[in-house]
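Forum: Protein Structure Q&A
Topic: Joint prediction for protein chains with partners

I've read a bunch of threads here and the consensus seems to be that you should model interacting components together rather than docking separate models afterwards. I'd like to see that in practice. Below is the full input, 596 residues plus whatever partners are listed. Could one of the regulars post the assembled result?
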Amino acid sequence: MSNVPTELRYTKTHEWVARNDDGTLTVGITEHAQELLGDMVFVEIPEEGTTFAAGDDCAVVESVKAASDIYSPVVGEVTEGNEALADAPETINNDPYGDGWIFKIKPEDEAEIDELMDSDAYAELIAAEEH
Amino acid sequence: MPFIPHTDDDVRNMLDAIGVKTIDELFDEIPAELRSKGLEVTPQGVSEMEIARLMQERAAQDEVCLCFAGGGAYEHHIPAAVWEITTRGEFYSAYTPYQAEASQGTLQLLYEYQTMMASLTGMDVSNASMYDGSSALAEAVLMAVRANRKSKSKRILMPRTVHPSYRKVVHTIVNGQGIVLEELDYDRNGGFIDPESLPAEPGDFAALVIPQPNFFGSLEEVDALTDWAHQHNALVIAVVNPTSLAILKAPGEWGTDGADIACGEGQPMGAPLSSGGPYFGFMCCRQTYVRQMPGRIIGGTVDLDGKQGFTLTLQAREQHIRRSKATSNICTNQGLLVTAATIYMSLIGPAGLEKVAAASHANTTALVDKLASLDGVIKVFDRPLFHEAVLQFDLPIEEIARALSVQGIVAGVSLVDDYPELGNCLLVCATETKTEQDLDTYKENLERIFVRMQSAKCPVEPKMK
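Posted by a regular:
Agreed with the consensus. Here's the joint model:
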């Protein structure tokens, strides 16, 4: 069973979301997602200042197996992309919840975050997927 | 007989295994209104004997002629070894092989091809080919819109000096994706895009297309155009003739930073004119944009024992993996033509290609001098040229061309329909295949035809607009 930290929120498309003190959200992909995708070879991070609707594809992670879209969990504007991933995409495999974060986004409506799954719901989702 | 090995039972079993009722259900993703309603205008099949007869009759209509037509496809000498080797069983496939373990020879050839193209264009990477020059340009336009991270614009600046057919194909392919092609007009004296005429504030645009040489055969001010586009955060798409690159500056060296994407028609390198195809397109780009490049790319690698090997690379962005989100819907490519081009380039080498380019330039210059020395023929543009030029005639081109064709001479490509503002103009080309005598034959026949046409009872009005 993959690690699913309790302090994070989750999407059905396997992104995790963390709240930051400055009101932005940090987004990455879950340990479960990186396990499914395998070794990362390339990450396309979103451009700072771009706005996305919830569910828009805003980044691409490419592994040896597949290229997958990363979807924005909320409506908002990207404030930062993780530039370090350009040279070290494997960070997503090694530290998905830490240095492997993908982008930060400033949500238009903070209440939207509460609609995301909590760790129990996400754990249930991946348990169901595995059966 | 259908060339599908599966029996109805096989198909049934496969569908049952994946829980789908009919083959049609597999295509549910495609909206009904976009589906083809079947092939309504395709005639019924005919027997092998009938089709052989029909094709023989059509082939017999082909004549050996003295060809001065270019306009995107060029007659060049092809060493006999090129197609002798290309059509060997080991190479005889149109496809890029997926199975690296069974296809090292073909993969190595494609890898060499990419290396040659990257070197010729001065770019970092090349793909394993496209369908043809025009669709390669369309893919380059789509790629530029995806790749330009400084601009979200879907506006492309497309000079009118780009091949008219290319512009039409690009429009057909990109139009449905909301991409706007904005035409740039050319200078009437030079037949080129005058950098001085470019707006200081062009507004946001994704890319500028730069043809070199352009459709008129004229050379563009590629350095100034490239720098201008880059100053406005746009990418530069070079559409180039591969033969010309032996004597002209490579797109990778244009301006301060070089072009971003280089594409074009590969036919001049080893493919016969052959009534219009099959040809192949090529596409090269900078390393930065490699993941936005469509098509197959062959990579070099090493196996477990450290021995060199070749394999398809960057496949994760392609349609067999990314489905509808793939970078492009280009699936297979013109592998056989690429094989011919690779062998052509290997056989003639850099020095040989330079000779071909220089001789084509010299022959065209000589032809233009000869023809323009006649009364009623004017060289239209005063710019340097590669191996084509625009000539204006006093007498109607259609009649001149018809009279020349009776003598087995293809006069050139008429510009009357695509460039009516130029009047009665013809695009002529003389590659290295033409001799001094060939050029004189053209001139002498033209002279004779002029005399006959002018002495005709009814004076002919030139089609000047």
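Chain A has a mean pLDDT of 93.
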